[in-house]
Write a structure and sequence with these properties.
Blueprint: H1 9-20, H2 24-34, H3 39-55
Length: 72
């Protein structure tokens, strides 16, 4: 059985940065610079996406992906 997951434009950009940035904090900072959004709302949305991706086994987070004072 195959399962497909879809993301909207913003979710796609989050995914791109999460998979190419050196760490989650860098991805967060880049998203904050690209989108006109409240920092706390972005933090919440990114955390929700990360949680969903991890829960579905699509993403693994390593402690090295988050700096000592994580933005998320």
């Amino acid at each position: 059985m195959e399962i497909y997951y879809g993301l909207d434009e913003t979710g796609t950009r989050m995914w791109q940065l999460l998979t190419t940035a050196p760490n989650i904090d860098n991805a967060y900072e880049e998203l904050l610079a690209e989108f006109e959004v409240d920092a706390e709302l972005l933090r919440q949305n990114l955390s929700e996406l990360l949680g969903q991706l991890v829960a579905k086994g699509l993403l693994r987070i390593h402690s090295a992906d988050v700096e000592s004072a994580p933005a998320i």
